[in-house]
């Protein structure tokens, strides 16, 4: 018997409506999805869940996305996980050191439909 392994995605986003919308879209495409609603919880989630890819918002309470990514990248378990920034901040408004922390790509939420975001994630994993 062959058991398919689902691709694991961590969505770190403080807006519950947005995170649930993406969760439903990714689960419909066969992803195993876990959510965190702030940077602190996001770091803990990534360590425990070991996702294949991370969608990360920049503006969040307690620890912003930039700080969370710095913590994730500081550990062996987080050095090589692809990260896609998914935010409403334009790239020029986001922290300058995000790129230095090794992000795969940068998506402005308002620019893409959830279906297009799923396609971008699949491209990043290919």
Describe this structure in words.
With 126 residues, the chain is an alpha/beta fold. It has a single domain, classed as 3-Layer(aba) Sandwich (Rossmann fold). It is 36% helix and 18% strand. It is built from 4 helices and 5 strands, in the order βαβαβαββα. The chain has helices at 16-28, 39-49, 65-73, 114-125, and strands at 8-12, 32-36, 53-56, 83-87, 105-108. It has a 5-stranded parallel β-sheet with strand order 2-1-3-4-5, sandwiched between helices. β3, α3 (65-73) and β4 form a beta-alpha-beta unit. The longest helix has 13 residues, at 16-28. The mean pLDDT is 89.
Number of helices: 4
Number of E-state strands? 5
Helix and strand pattern: EHEHEHEEH
What would you call the structural class? alpha/beta
Topology-level CATH name = Rossmann fold
- Strand-residue proportion: 15-25%
Radius of gyration: 14 Å
Mean pLDDT over the residues: 89
What is the distance, rounded to the nearest whole angstrom, between the alpha carbons of the first and last residues?
25 Å
The largest β sheet comes out as: 5 strands, parallel
Question: Can you describe this structure in just a few lines?
Answer:
This protein has helices at 16-28, 39-49, 65-73, 114-125; strands at 8-12, 32-36, 53-56, 83-87, 105-108.
List keywords for this structure.
126 residues, alpha/beta, Rossmann fold, 4 helices, 36% helix
Strand and helix map with partners:
Elements: E1 8-12, H1 16-28, E2 32-36, H2 39-49, E3 53-56, H3 65-73, E4 83-87, E5 105-108, H4 114-125
Parallel strand pairs: 1-2, 1-3, 3-4, 4-5
Helix pairs in contact: 2-3
């Amino acid at each position: 018997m062959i058991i398919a392994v689902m691709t694991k995605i961590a969505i770190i986003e403080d807006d519950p409506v947005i995170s649930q919308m993406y969760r439903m879209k990714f689960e419909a495409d066969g992803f195993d999805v876990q959510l965190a609603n702030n940077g602190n919880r996001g770091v803990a989630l990534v360590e425990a869940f070991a996702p294949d890819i991370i969608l990360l918002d920049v503006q969040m309470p307690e620890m912003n996305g930039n700080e969370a990514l710095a913590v994730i990248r500081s550990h062996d378990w987080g050095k090589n996980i692809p990260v896609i920034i998914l935010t409403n901040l334009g790239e020029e408004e986001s922290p300058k050191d995000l790129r230095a922390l090794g992000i795969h790509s940068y998506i402005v939420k308002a620019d893409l439909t959830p279906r297009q975001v799923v396609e971008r994630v699949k491209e990043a994993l290919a």
